[in-house]
User: Fold this.
Amino acid sequence: MTETLPLRYLDGHVFVELAGEAWLLDTGAPESFGASRGLSIAGQAFEPGESYLGLDAAGLSELTGTPCAGLLGADVLGCFDHVFDLDTGRLEVSKSELAHRGRNVPLEEFMGIPIVTARIGENQHREHRMFFDTGAQYSYFQGDALDEHPDAGAVEDFYPGLGRFRTETRRVPLSLGGAAFELRCGRLPELIGLTLMMASVDGIVGNAVLHGRSVGYFPRRRCMSIGEGA
Assistant:
């Protein structure tokens, strides 16, 4: 079964609408949670828990600035093929394989969280393993080379189990599968950075890569497909 759902970008975050309720769409979270204990996607029923790492739907609404019913993480998103199109406000989701024409990006995973290989910097000689996290409104890079890029100002962000934090950001050129982006990248707090080190990951690619193009996300097949930019 294939279902097309409303997709919204609000205050830097990506939400999908299910039964009239907004859910944060977060490929970077291992577990889903929400105030609504039952939900259905493309004919499949799920019963998410009430919270994750002490964060519930009320706390998530406060942190994102948008009233929402909960968060859809990798445990739910990993059951489907997805095609994101923020420009048209549509998410196509299916238990079957969806077709998408774009640049192929292989995926690895750690605890269900997708990992992409990115090339960073002007010359892009070096490859870096990065989490692909649609729940992240900014991207992050832990390498010393971050400081070589133009300043983009300080931002405030949050992380489940840690709460709010502040970081200086830089404008960093990055490519995925040959598709070029300029991402606003910060540096994660030390505690989260240690988690990345455990997964041999150098940073996070946030939801900015979903803007101006359609993106296929196929976790069961361990690949993404990045459409041409506008």
